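Re: [help] complex structure
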Amino acid sequence: MRRHDTIAATLLSLTHAFGTALVSEQVARRPGLLQAFDPRVRVIGLFALVLAVILSHRISVIVALFVVAVLLAVLSQVNLKSLAIRVWLMVLLFTSVIALPSVFLTPGDPIVTFPAGALHITAQGVTTAVLLITRVETAVTLTTLLVLTTPWMQILKALRAFRIPQEVVMMLAMTHRYIFLLAETAAQMFESRQSRTVGVIAHSAARHMTTRTGGVLLSKSVELSNDVFLAMQSRGFRGDAKTLSEFRMRSLDYIGLLSFLLVGVVAVWVGRA
Amino acid sequence: MTAPIFEAKQVSFSYEAIPALRDLSLSMEAGRSLALVGANGSGKSTLLRLLDALCFPSSGSISFSGNPLTPERLRADGYDLWFRRRVALLFQNPDVQLFNPTVFDEVAFGPLQLGWASTEVIARVNSMLETMVISHLRDRAPYRLSAGEKKRVALASVIVLDPEVLLLDEPTSMLDPRSQSQLIDLVQNWKGTSKTVITSTHQLEIVEDIAERVVVLEQGSVAADGTPSEILSNGELLLRANLVHAHRHKHGDMVHSHPHLHSHARHEH
Amino acid sequence: MHIPDGYLSPSTCAALYASAGVGWYAALRRVKCVFTTRLIPLISVFAAFSFVLMMFNLPLPGGTTGHAIGVTIASIILGPSGAILSISIAVAIQALFFGDGGITTLGANCFNMAIVGSLMAYVTYRLVAAGAAISSRRRVVAAAIAGYLAANTAAFVAAVEFGIQPLFFHNARGVPLYAPYPLSVAIPAMMIGHLAVAGIAEAVIAAGLVAYLQVADPLLLGNTSGLSDSATSTPVFVPQKSLRKLWLTVALLMLLTPLGILAGGTAWGEWSMSQVSAAADQKAIPTTSHDQAQPSSPPAGLQRLCSLWTAPIPNYAPEFVKSPRFGYLLSAMFGVGMLMAFSLVIQRILQRRRTAGQP
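Output below.
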């Protein structure tokens, strides 16, 4: 039925946000390798590896980095099967669709020629497609590891340590917190509208419903922001927020940091043009 | 007779074109507890926000311990920080008040803004979490809390500074019965101490527990001011102010109607 | 349109991070001085709103469904600086927390959607709505046009970012190292989706929300009509002269896209070498030899520009691209950009003369 297509799809994405949050909280609590490092080490280290993935020109190096990522996942008690289904498979499908035409379109040395002569698969085409897919898979795996093992608040505190302006970090924190509230509010609005309508909703009616829900959400958002502003003022906020700094590096963290950077540098050096 | 801690004189306030308070005058003594009752839209929240100097009257004046609450006065020599430490407002909607990533951060926010030292902040927050029995929630994000937990965290985050004045905006709204009674217990503990407590509510049944004085608001002005027993026995007033309803109901074999509210208070005829 | 890691080369990522950084810095400074204490809750909640809006599956006229970015309504309500910050924050959270979009490409994504998108949306909206009453239908139409142009401009810039990858970043054997499609493929591929669907989604949301606000809360639309407003909602006053600055920025952006390509001279030499060596690419050689059909008298300088566009395109490109018309389209953009910049400069000079002449 038409009615369920768009509204239901919207509801699904809205609730998906919560699912992601819950999963990442669970993983962050496990006593794995990545979880043991200072959040700053995780942020720098995994980012360095992603950079190495982007800087390397050789597929072999990128695959090696992928293996490193999988190893980190295992050591951090991340469920590989769920990683495979939620991340690897999705990325593979999506990127393959994008990369497939390049197999035919990239000029170079043909390795397969189709009978009509109009279409060839070139070696360069295959290489570029594989290169793209492995890069994306490895990078996404590394980013996912960071997100799964590090609660949002810790990522933000790590960012603060990297001299990102305090206002920006505060905004990132607050936005994250209120995304869930607004998503829940929007979901409730959609559910209540859905339950009040009988029969199939026409496409254009669904559009109006969605837009109107967006409008109400907008009004609520503005009201929320005004009230939050007052609440912050009421607690003494005058514009420059002060926070506690809590991180301390231990020897384990330095070892971890050096290891990440070493792997990254080796990968870039071996994988250079 | 000591000077009143709050003095509102002929205060008017409008949101855009809609008037919320009309020519309201009210005087509040320190160390007392007041229940501000009125139907939704009668101006209770607005008054509390004005008392907390979050907005300012379009006409009339409000003063705190003899100091006029105006934007200029607040800006002068750090008066606002002094004021914020002494007066705390608990908002009706806890989501508005929980804007930090975790419960610990939330309770720590106030002390940090007022410039307390880190060690002091940490110690004070920990003890506050214990007092409010929410230590187990310290690393929890606000969206993962129940309504009752949110209220407790919000309350913790405003009383951590040990304010002299507590302004509570519908503190029992959206709470289940048990959380409600827990909150009422807390407010009752303050009654009789040196703290000044002003609670706004439309739930008449809790008024006697939480306050010695009741002020009834109707359409932005004071309609009545007296003790709980005086106000609660004035059926007509309550009906007019839309705080109670009247409909036909049964007592045993009798069927009649009179102003009442559904509560566990017995009423006999 | 969130570009994942791996599609853009490190230097492209770095360049776009730098450009985005400039935009962020300018936006933050401006918003801080306008909003002071209100900045943090306002931008945050708006970013959260945009984020949630992006999740809406919007049924569009014609039967398709699409997703909007929300950059247009953000620009209309907060002004371009506020929109730059809000959308950037939403995009950053999508990347860092939900894995939607890469972290090396975060600068690029913010540049495309938050910066280019909001500038384009704001400038278009102001121009089309110019002085109309807040409740007038013209504002709804202006929002729709602004949304459509903003989404498509953002997509176009992304397409250019993709399209230049094989041009500059390939190895000695001719393997593209990042996004493998040249401009001739990347641009149509990206634009078709956005012209037909995503642009419409953005237009529908922008227009729908403006229409809603005209009834529900017209004060929020106050800033972009040039009226200074002391409302309790969102007091943003963007004075008239900054509109000209924004025009200049848009003009510069349009100028930069072709100029960026012009800079890479040696890459084309390599391209044609690998083409020549491959037997199947013999047809590419005539393409590189500038003997396209002569159009009706273009200026010589523009002619050279066109051939620079069409020369490196190999034989697999669709027909219309091999014609000089495609090159002219891009040169026309360059020309318009130049004219805009030129007219702004003239205006500036005239204004200075006028104020100098006054006592």
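Chain A touches chain C through 91 residues (CB under 8 Å).
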